[in-house]
Amino acid sequence: MSADACDSLPSCAAMTPGLSAGQLTQLAPGVRRLVAPNPGMMTGPGTNTYIIGRREVAVIDPGPAMAGHVDATLDAIADRVGAVLRWVLVTHTHSDHSPAATLLASRSGAALLGRPPPPGRHQDAAFLPDRVLEDGEVFATSEFTLDVIHTPGHASNHLTFRHGALDWLFTGDHVINGSTVVIDPPDGNMSAYLHSLEKIKSYRLAAIAPGHGELIEEPYAAIDALIRHRLAREKKVLDAVRADSALTSGELVSRVYRDVDSSLYSVAERSLLAHLEKLEADGSVRRDGQRWEALQR
């Protein structure tokens, strides 16, 4: 199961139903979106692969290691006379975002850019970037620039990319359309995630191009809604611990996620644990083995 999953909806598959696997869409001059054929509860319509540029082309998030999707990506680039794939950029190394990168590079000679995978069962351990991208650098080509922004939280190596001319932010799984994503410890970190959401608000943004779902045309409202949702969920967690101390995260999940279908409780428990770890760091709860108790009211 992918680490990408709904926190607030019964099913991610309902997210932006207008998109479909294999769909190639021109979003703006020099920006196209190709939807990978990996739809599902955890990925919605599928992973969005973005093709940037006209002549010297970059691909953002090539998606899962599916030969048909790699072929479709290369075919879309080849449809433009003289276009050459030069770079493959990866927002993070979860299994639905980066594994096709190595395949694309081996067939095109493109350079791999991103950050190495941390340890973890959901990570693409085969991704070895030719160049590690650093927070605050500007990736510049003759056609476009991308501001590189390190946005840990969903994954510790997560990056977002801001298109300098369009003011669009390519967010991978930091912000998606229609739902929230799981923050899965130990690599996922709720404090870091909230900080990263605040961080991207400091940039000039006209739209968000997410890793799943349609373009988000009110970026600041979407970011603020995510922050409010996470903090409201955190309050539910703290209230539940205060009401009935010495419960495990598994016992707490049905109290905190009553608005989520019980079939998703095992996934929701991961974000619940991330909230508990944040509250522990804040000094509001403490862990006694597998059980949690409140420290202050």
Question: How would you characterize the overall build of this protein?
Answer:
- The chain is an alpha/beta fold.
- 28% of the residues lie in helices and 22% in strands.
- The chain has helices spanning 67-78, 100-108, 190-200, 219-243, 249-256, 265-281; strands at 24-28, 31-35, 48-52, 56-60, 84-89, 111-114, 131-132, 138-140, 145-150, 159-163, 168-172, 207-210, 247-248, 285-288, 291-294.
- The strands form three sheets. It has a seven-stranded mixed β-sheet with strand order 1-2-3-4-5-6-7, with helices on one face.
- Helix 1 (67-78) packs across helix 2 and helix 5 (249-256) crosses helix 6.
- The longest helix is centred in the last third of the chain and has 25 residues, at 219-243.
- The model is unreliable at 1-15 (pLDDT under 50).
